[in-house]
Design goal:
alpha+beta; 2 domains; 12 helices; DUF3500; DUF3500 domain-containing protein
Length: about 425
Amino acid sequence: METGCRTTYWRDYIPPPDTPRSKELARSNTYQWAEARCSEPFVSGWMQAWEGLLGEPYKGITVNGQSIPDLYHLDDDGAGGPGTPVPVAAMVRAAQIVLGEASADQRRLIVREIDAPEWRRWMNPEIYVYRHGVRLEEVSDALVEAIHGLMRASLSPAGYVKAAGCMKVNDFLGKVVDGTKVLNERSYNFTMFGEPSQVEPWGWQLHGHHLDMNCLVVRRQMVLSPVFMGAEPNVIDEGPNKGTELFTDQEQTALQLVQSMDQPTRARVRIYKQLSGPEFPSWRYHRADQRHLGGAFQDNRQIPYEGSKVSTFTAVEQDLVRQLIVLGINYLPEGALAVKVQEIAAHWQDTYFCWIGGYQRETGFYYKIHSPVVMVEFDHHSGVFLTNKDPLPFHIHTLVRTPNGNDYGKELLRQYRERYQRQGLPSSPEGKDS
């Protein structure tokens, strides 16, 4: 279909129910669907690549393979209390409710060591390969609600609405394509790392189709990345959740930014005119990930700065970039968001913005904001369960990474251990976990 003539109404791309794939989806549960997909040559080869990447020691996303030192610093302050940037006490209470609702067997599945390898085994596709933790569709309503309680305690109100919205859209997609045993509001796994504490490091992970969150807390500090949020479609237009709409604020702000630029600035930031094609080097496009670079299993990827430094933009354009960053990371609670914004501002002279595609919503586009301490990606995708072969604006992937070694809070955890455990000091300045 020609770009100028194609429709961008997502319902025009619902697959017929009598195709072989539609029939297979309708009769499959999540285990059967995963088995079938993993037998396909592309997915099988993809999984082999995943295992190879997981076997690498963690380094973090870098520009050239070398991490920039001294970017992240462990606070000297004690446990989180009133006025702390992170709602640690509320998070601990919510996590304890999760463990209280879980059976003994479920607790054994949920809790992993703080540095367990399962941190890095999250994945966005609906193919159920990595099965650590507990599956929400296989546990009680009370435990699911407790997990949502921990999400509410950990995230900003807007962040929780967005995360829950991804889950609701996944459920809506399952109903639209008759695949509710594979795609539903509970198609997610939950894992906890370490024991909930206001002093000792701990965290949690939720992973599944179009929603992957990794949250580590070290006393007063929080790292919430990698984060993947997506939607296909990005709107719910019927049913009890009608009116849900995801990522349009990021989309419209990005368009406002690029449409405000003069031609020379556009030429600098636009690294490819089309969303795919022979102009792309092999590293810049993947059949499944498409244009985004920081997805699952890309923890050690070398990702160069692209486009132009944002410090060369006009003041108005720089403010729009700041807005885009905040919209990308506004899942952080208020205090943690303020700290992260300050951290990003300190590296503003080394922050880059790039663009791929056209300058209108209907044509689809990609952007990346990349600095030493944050990487935010937004990508319009082609259909997976819907049938659009070209990227269209109703299938969206967003990603946030903390480059140079601090995804999963790993650099803060390293410093914590160096300070308290290797020196044989008590982990709390007062010598107790209180």
